[in-house]
Amino acid sequence: MANQGLHQVQKQTQSLVLAPQLRQSLKILQAPTLELRNAILEELQANPTLEELPMDGISIEEQTRTEDNSGEAATDRNSENKEMEMSDDDYSILNKMDEDFREYFAQENSNQSHTSEDAEKRQHFFDSLVSETSLQEHLIGQADMVEMEEAERLAIHYLVGSLDDRGFLTSGLSELALMANVPLSAVQNASNILRTFEPAGIGAFDLKDCLLYQLKLKGNDKGLAAKIIASHYDLLIRRRIPEIARKLGTDIEKVQSALTEIASLDPAPGRKFAEDTNRVVVPDVKIEKVDEEWVIQLNNDYIPRLRLSKTYKEIIAKGIVNSKDKEYIREKMRSGKFLINSIEQRQQTIERISKEILKYQKDFFEEGISKLRPLTMNQIAEEVGVHETTVSRALANKFIETPHGVFEFKYFFTPGYKSQDGTSVSNTSIKELIGQIIEDESPTKPYSDQAIVEILAEKAIKIARRTVAKYREELGILPTNLRRKYK
Question: CA-to-CA distance for 74 and 314, rounded, in angstroms?
């Protein structure tokens, strides 16, 4: 039997370890404009050798020329600049990385204030923020105002926790009673109480139950709309209006009126409490036509302009600090220079990619979405001379402002089809055509998916019927029988 226990074993392996500066450069490359601003301001706080230039001040190039012409200690400063320059190998790694560092970039950066007054204002701002009330908080608040038995209160808390995002119960009452270890009668009473809460229809078992209860609360539980939902729900969801009218012995106009009433009901009362995920979008690039020429403008309004402090350069050149402090200053200056170069490289990369997108998608900028062409990131990478993953990082979470609206950069990269005349057409353009065809159809005689295939074929675009159905569903357009309206 082999000896058991702990053993030391030497093993040699190869691995790629990113230096902090290279991680920072990747972070800068992928960060959207506002996140980049926060990262730069954070670095300004941590690195004393960095200074922020005023937006309307002299350029960095002019500042550099002024400093280089100062005469005294110019040679020392030039040697320091050479010492702090990054090697070609450092930057080549940025273009060859195959791993995705999204998780690293997802770390939130906070904007630290420069003065105590700014800090107080910022703290007051955060203290003033009020989080949105959740559906559960809204319902529990109402339950606290109702007198009920302790078992019922326990049951109603359990019911509230069992609601899905639409506000419907996910299980039957008997099952919930067993899981909560509460008498079934208490759960039934709690369910009846919950259904009286706002918003109307909360605590229903399904959509049919939700709609019927909303009509009951309105006092219309005996009307035509309630009869349609209760007795002919399957026909309703398929919008078989003539068949519903025939079965109820009424005319189509009254059924249409009842459907209008049903449409005014809330099919998911809990969703109004869903978290608001809207975010501020600041375009990183603007492409517009000026005097018949397309112009690319990078958004530099939110990116602080940096330079290395002249004071610390003089301290290094004059040798008025000990070796330990000198090495600390040199390291901070190297870090600052790398940051400045990384920001410049980021902007240059985004600009070069934007130029290639404009070249490939010029018809889109001229005429709109219907002229969007198929394009892959590999095509752009080959033109720009970088790795495909570099293009992906450079465009992640970034937006471009065009004459037709603001789009995410990745919107312009889409597969497509070859038309019969050999022209490439993107699937986004095909979706746009399908949407336009359906918009122009007769309400009483809507096009079938096969009819849309034939119309596209007349435009020299050959795709399968199932592809039309897929794109129609992605556009949120109902099938033919549900789009048909009856006179």
Answer: 10
Whole-number Cα distances in Å, 395 to 187, 361, 471, 485: 53, 16, 25, 44
Q: State residue 294's pLDDT score.
A: 92
DSSP state letters, 301-320: TTS-EEEE-HHHHHHHHHT-
Which tokens belong to 462?
């050959």
pLDDT, tens digit, 9 for 90 and up, residues 2-13? 555 666 767 665
Say which range, 33-47, 84-98, 418-432, has the weakest mean pLDDT.
84-98
pLDDT of residue 221: 81
Q: Between 3.30.420.10, 3.30.200.20, 1.10.10.60, 1.10.10.10, what CATH number should domain 419-483 receive? A: 1.10.10.60
Q: How far apart are CA 380 and CA 374, in angstroms?
A: 12
From residue 376, give the alpha-carbon distance in Å to each of 102, 347, 418.
20, 21, 15
| pLDDT for res 81 | 45
Nearest alpha carbon to residue 29 among 338, 278, 401: 338
Cis before residue 20, ω within 30 degrees of 0?
no
Q: What mean pLDDT is reported for the chain?
A: 76
Return the sign of the alpha-carbon dihedral for residues 207, 212, 213, 215: positive
For the chain, give the percent of residues with pLDDT over 70.
Answer: 75
Angle at 346 between CA 407 and CA 412, to 5 degrees: 25
Q: Is the pLDDT of residue 326 over 70?
A: yes
Average pLDDT over residues 375-388: 84
How many CA atoms are closer than 13 Å to the CA of 366, on its beta-carbon side? 10
Rounded mean pLDDT, 251-272: 85
Nearest to 270 by CA among 421, 455, 139: 139
d(CA 364, CA 38): 33
pLDDT surpassing 70 at residue 35: yes
482 sits in which H/E element: helix 480-483
Distance between CA atoms of 305 and 385, rounded to whole angstroms?
A: 27
The residue among 36, 7, 87, 77 whose CA lies nearest residue 319 is: 77
Domain ranges of the chain: 24-104+278-414, 135-273, 419-483
Structure tokens that stand for 177 in this block: 């009673």
Confidence of residue 56 (pLDDT cuts 50, 70, 90): low
Q: How far apart are CA 209 and CA 206, in angstroms?
A: 5
